[in-house]
Structure formats: structure tokens, C-alpha cells
Amino acid sequence: MKATRRHFLVTAGAAAAAAASVSAVAATPCGASGLPAKWDEAFDVVIVGSGFAGMSAAATALHEGASVTVLEKMPTWGGNSAIAGGGFAAWTDSLKLREKYGMGKDSEEQHRMDTLKGGDFFNMPELVDVLVKNAPAAMDWMLKEGGLKLNKGIGRVGGHTAYRDHMATGERYLLALESIAKKNGFKGVRTNCKVVRLWKDEKSGRFVGVEVKTGGKTINIRANRGIVLGAGGYARDVKFRMSQVPFLTEAYNSTNQPSATAETLMMAQAAGASTLHLAFIQLFPTADAKTGSIDRPALFPIQFPGFGAVYVDKNGKRFVSELGRRDVVSQAETKTGGKCTWCVFNAQVYSKLTDKAEMDKFVATGRLKTGKTLDELAAAMQVPAAALKATIAEHNGFVRDGKDPKFGKPISKAMAQMTEGPYYAVSQWPSVHHCQGGVRINPKAQMIDIFGNVMPGLYAAGEFVGGVHGDNRLGGNAIADCIVFGRVAGKNAASKA
Ligand SMILES: Cc1cc2nc3c(=O)[nH]c(=O)nc-3n(C[C@H](O)[C@H](O)[C@H](O)COP(=O)(O)OP(=O)(O)OC[C@H]3O[C@@H](n4cnc5c(N)ncnc54)[C@H](O)[C@@H]3O)c2cc1C
After folding, report:
1. Does residue 325 have an active-site annotation?
2. What is the C-alpha to C-alpha distance for residues 326 and 282, in angstroms, rounded to an integer?
């Protein structure tokens, strides 16, 4: 089947049915009843999940000469990755984009320090090292081998001190990964295949296969070399997230697909996996205030501040540094006292990354408010015009002076003073977004058990893993994380050793 955006997206009904049934996952420790009487199928590498982590593991394992199967519980493949905004943080790339756009300096060490600081040093430094060292190569791999096309420009997003945000869409990265996999004989993701048990050979201590529910049947698939768990996060699992963070009730919207539930994580725990940081659950500060989702305009408040966009509250006043970390911005928004807050910009800002046609499109749908003047924009936003004009005038002064005494935002030369209409505003509000916690791995992506030992045969990557991002994940670092560690997991799982 040809992969299209529709192909990835799940309808709420089908999705809910497939994502539910936590009880369908084996609660008994795997192996308690021994191995299955027979194996229905066998592959060198069995991959659970078809997002960035699973697909990069598949492409890599196939390249290593392994036979591979990718199992996906949902009726369509791609998970959260299919709807990802597409920011990918890499401090360099073979296209030399940062240099091409004249966006200053960057380095592996700078990316490393930003990631550690952004996570308040809760991160496992050895995993951060793998991420920042290998992010450029992962990007180049998709550009060269997968035919990936990037958007115009290179961005700087909250918590990063450099312009390193490469932009495409989640769908484009997935198709690039699929295309690399196909070069090595990939036959496609197997949808409606839910892994419900990990089989462990008690004699050797090795994980050797999975039990799968598919089409009303149960089958057992042997993994001759390794199993990769790329099963994603649990932001849509209200019960599980509340068990970690009680205030994250269903009153909070989520940006995630219905597939983002915790039963596979619990299956890994039941098999003895160590987990960490499960309570570090990120709110995305600029989701659509009505739906909680991340549509294209919800990315403008993430991408445009590097070029001078300003956030205001319902009183037309700034309330935070627009380049603040996601947790800081989300908290500041909540403290403004009520929905919603806004990101304000004009052509001097958006033209660095996109064009008027895109603005017109979202003005037509009503998602963007606009006005020829700030007075007109304020009326459309229903905020006090005098306050909005004073805010923009003050911010223009900060940009001119190179200093933001109000919120300490680092001002760069790329930031514009907004002096010409038309002006635009997009509404924004926090929504449950990313799980920084998950299973514990080592830098080889091998899973670690509760006693600190490697779990032979088991590998994990992506949002299923904890410890890479500490208590707060920086924008663009998740896609890089999934693809970097997916590659590591795929390579090691395919190894005959
Ligand atoms: C709307 C949105 C926008 C985002 N934008 C960005 C961005 O611009 N930059 C960035 O860095 N990050 C972004 N992120 C975060 C990033 O996209 C995710 O962290 C990433 O997609 C996770 O990939 P993954 O492969 O780990 O999991 P997923 O893509 O969620 O894939 C996991 C898959 O595993 C399947 N699965 C789970 N359990 C089983 C089982 N037992 N059997 C079979 N299948 C199973 C699931 O159904 C799912 O399809 C965004 C996230 C969202 C939701």
C-alpha cells in the first residue's frame, strides 16, 4: 500500500479500540510458563512499533543483513511520529545549512550542554553523548539514503543556544526511513499486530520472541538475534500518567495519537525492566488552545521567536521569555490566569521560514487572527489594543538594544523589530505532549533490568526509553533521539554476537 498522510492517521474510533485493552497484555512475568510449544514465524530481528524508533531500527537492521519484521498494534502505522511537527536538532549537517543561512556558530559540546541544562541535569550523560554525537549523521543518512527534503531555513527553539532546528514533517522522515528500509528488502509494517508478551528462555536468560495478537489469533514470533521495543510514550494514557503525576487528569488535552498508552511499558516492567523518570511528562506550551493538538500553526510559536515573535497574554502583555524552556513557558501560561495566550508576528518574522501563502491559508480557516494594524489585530484577538501596542513597541526597543531586561531573553541579530502590518496572532495553550521517562538502556540501546543487568536480546529506543532528556525535553531533540537510538538498537540487535 502506498504510504500517504491518510495512511498514517488513525480515526479516533479504530484507534481507541486498538489502543485500549491494557488487560490484553500478559501480566504474568514472561517465561513463567516456559516458551511456547511452537514458533509460528522466525526473524533475526523483531521490532515492536512503527514510529521513528522502530523504522530507523528496521532500516538499520536490514542494512546489516538481518531479516526483520515490524509489528504495529494500530490499524495504520507511524504512531506519534506520523503527526510530529518535524523539528530535528543537529548541530551540523552535510548541507551546512547553518553556515548557508549565516546563523552563527554551534558545536557538539554546545548541543550537549543545552540538552543537559534543559533537562536540569537529570539526563543520563552517556545517552546525551550518543544523541548529540550522532544526530548529524542520522540527518545526513536520511538526506542521502532516504531522499529526505527539508524546509527552508534553520531555526532556534526554546532552550537551545544555537540555530540547529532542521525542519521537515514527521511524515517525511518516516517515508525517508521506509525508503531506506525498502532498499534492503523491507516488505512493510504489519499493522493490527499487538505484542502482548516477551518470551524469555529461562535456561539461557535470553529474550527470544514475542506473543502477538492479530486478527483474532495469537501467534508466536521468534527473534533469532534481538527484539527492539520502539513502542512510544504514554501521554494519552490518563490512568497511567495520573499514577505518576496526579494532576494530569483528563481535563488536560494531549497532542498525541490514541496509540500513546502504557501497556507495553508495563509489559516490559513485568519482564523485569528497570524504568526511570516516569513522572517527567512534558506539556507542549503552544498547542491549539481549543483542541490541544499540534497543527502547523501551533509550530509558529515554536519556530518564530528565534526571528522576533512575541508572546502575549489575554491582557496584551508579555509574560515569559519566548525562548524559554517548554516547562517554563507552560507554567507561565497557566499563571496568566486563563485560556488563551497568543504568539504575535508579522512578515518581518515569518518570511525567514515561510511565505504569505501559508499565512493566507490559515487566516482563511480562522486559525490565524490578522489585522493591517496592531489596533485591528487586538480587536480580532479581543485583547486591549493600547497594551498590545505598548508591548510590541517595548519589545522592538529590546531587539534594537540587544537586551531584554524584562524576561532575560537572549536577543540575536536574526530577530526583527516588528514595525509593519499586516500583523498575525495564533492562540496557544499547554497540552500533554512528551514522556521523558521510560525503560532504562545503556549507550548500546540494550535494556537494563531492575538489578542493573543487561537483558540479553532486548533493545529499546525512542520515547519508550527514559533518561535521555532529563526532566524537560528540548524541541527537536525527540526526533533526533528516536532516530539516533533506533539506529543503535537496530545495529546491535542485528549483530550475530
Ligand atoms: C504532534 C506532535 C508533534 C511533535 N513534534 C516534534 C518535533 O517537531 N520535534 C521533535 O523532536 N519531537 C516532536 N514530537 C515528539 C516525537 O515526535 C515523538 O517523541 C516521536 O515521534 C516518538 O517516536 P517513537 O518511535 O518513539 O514512538 P511512536 O512514533 O509513538 O511509535 C510507537 C508505535 O508503537 C506502537 N506500539 C506500542 N505498543 C505496541 C505493541 N505492544 N505492539 C505493537 N505496536 C505497539 C504504537 O501504536 C506506535 O505506533 C512531537 C510529538 C507529537 C505528538
Report:
1. no
2. 8
> Mind listing the domains of the chain with CATH numbers?
5-84+173-280+436-494 (3.50.50.60), 284-431 (3.90.700.10)
Q: Where are the beta strands (DSSP E) in 1-111?
A: 41-48, 68-71, 87-89
Integer CA distances (angstroms), 447 to 54, 260, 327, 456, in order: 15, 20, 28, 8
Please report the pLDDT score of residue 21 as a whole number: 37
d(CA 285, CA 471): 15
Catalytic position from the list 164, 225, 241, 326: 326
Please give the distance, rounded to the nearest whole angstrom, from the Cα atom of residue 146 to the centre of ligand 1. 20
* Ligand 1 site-directed mutation target among 22, 55, 80, most atoms within 8 Å of CB: 80
The pLDDT assigned to 29 comes to 42
Ligand 1 pocket test: pick from 288, 479, 485 the residue with the most ligand atoms within 8 Å of its Cβ: 479
63, 56, 45: which is closest to 487 by C-alpha?
56
At 301, phi and psi to the nearest 5?
-65, -15
Confidence bin at 205 (pLDDT 50/70/90): very high
DSSP letter for each residue of 248-312:
--TTS-BSS-TT--SHHHHHHHHTTB-EE-TT-EEEEEEE-TTT----HHHHHHHHSGGGT-EEE
165: how many CB neighbours lie within 10 A of its CB? 25
What is the four-CA torsion angle of 105, 109, 111, 112, rounded to 10 degrees?
A: -170
